Amino acid sequence: MSRTAEPSPIPVYRPYLGPEIQDAARSAIQAGWLGMGSLSQQFEQRLEEFLELDGRRVVSTNSCTEALHLAGQLIGLGPGDEVICPSFTYVAGHQAMSRTGASVVFCDIEPETLSIDPAAVEALVTDRTRAIMAVDFLGLPCRMDELMEIADKHGLRVIEDAAHAFGSRSNGRPIGSFGDITCFSFGPVKTITTLEGGAVVTADPNDVQVLHELRHLGIDSDTDARYRNQRNWEFDVVRQGFRCHLGSVPAAIGLAQMDLVDEFIANRQQYCRAYDEAFRNVDGIELFETDWDGIAPYIYVIRVASDVRDDLMAHLKSLGIATGIHFLGAHNFSFYAASRRGDLSVTDRVTKEVLTLPLHPYMSDDTIGRVTKGVQSFFSGRTAGRGRYGGASRKAAEPADALN
Ligand SMILES: Cc1ncc(COP(=O)(O)O)c(C=O)c1O
């Protein structure tokens, strides 16, 4: 099953960078056109096909953080505006929004999917609200239809941070093919990687020109030439822009990864099902309610009692199994201490319970077995029913090996 020897300790993430990927990178380097070029355009077209976009367009970027920032710029966010965001997400999203000058407003999540709670969103809307930022946690779709209804009612935009959800579907529709603006990540450990990379999907084809200008220094007429591996020496600068395009080598890597994406996703689903099967009857572990059909899982997360999590992490570490924590809760960061917020009780609870186990595009039965047995052995020695998820208080251990 595994395509390369597996390292020990078992890491949380492990991108696939096998011979096909390295060959693609080498060819792109040998071709000699390193900046944004024809490969960048081919990668965008490949994403448009894969996401089954019907008129929607993809604009690639050098990260999802930059994609989210471009989305914020596109909808004109600025000082005085508020964006309602889950606190329970990676700080990349909050930073992308606050970089526009807008204020982040922290909103709670719903316990089932750990995505932003539409009812809590509506309670936070004010005259200053301009947008909602939603996150598809670990690849599970957020409640986009309800969020779009709230957005329509209050005249808001919705930026979907689908960094975790490339390849996931909601009611049969690929994420990115519906909603308002969607952003993906192709960072080092994501479902597909371009080493670093991202993309914005927009429903309005007229946005594409603006996004091209925002992506490349506000220049009005450069993209078409670069997509032919040429440069346009005469141009105008028509707005404040940034410099966050996807170069040719990352795009070539992304194209090679796209050849394998169906296999990556099928494998990840299979490993998540194997984990679920092994943990379903373990007293002390809460699982997400999904059979993983239509979901492209980016990470595998369990929930355990807050007072056992550190011990479980230490136990797994002693067995050579790395773990992670997604996420900490951004409302606790010093930079956002003054940010407006609603009730965050689900967030406050969940941030202490979530634990990320290893999930890679290729894992051997042996690796899956080591992780499942490692987790099971921790709980088998404990008395069930002590506290939430059967936990009991034990001494604190070292923090996670791998955060985001
Ligand atoms: C939910 C979420 N949004 C955004 C990002 C940022 O993605 P990138 O590293 O491509 O900027 C991440 C990164 O892991 C993430 O987890």
UniProtKB/TrEMBL annotation:
SUPFAM superfamilies: PLP-dependent transferases. The keyword Acyltransferase does not apply. GO terms for molecular function: transaminase activity. The keyword Transferase applies. It comes from the Bacteria. InterPro entries: DegT/StrS_aminotransferase (IPR000653), PyrdxlP-dep_Trfase (IPR015424), PyrdxlP-dep_Trfase_major (IPR015421), PyrdxlP-dep_Trfase_small (IPR015422). Gene3D superfamilies: Aspartate Aminotransferase, domain 1, Type I PLP-dependent aspartate aminotransferase-like (Major domain). It holds the Pfam family DegT_DnrJ_EryC1. This is DegT/DnrJ/EryC1/StrS family aminotransferase. It comes from Lysobacter korlensis. The lineage of its organism: Bacteria, Pseudomonadati, Pseudomonadota, Gammaproteobacteria, Lysobacterales.
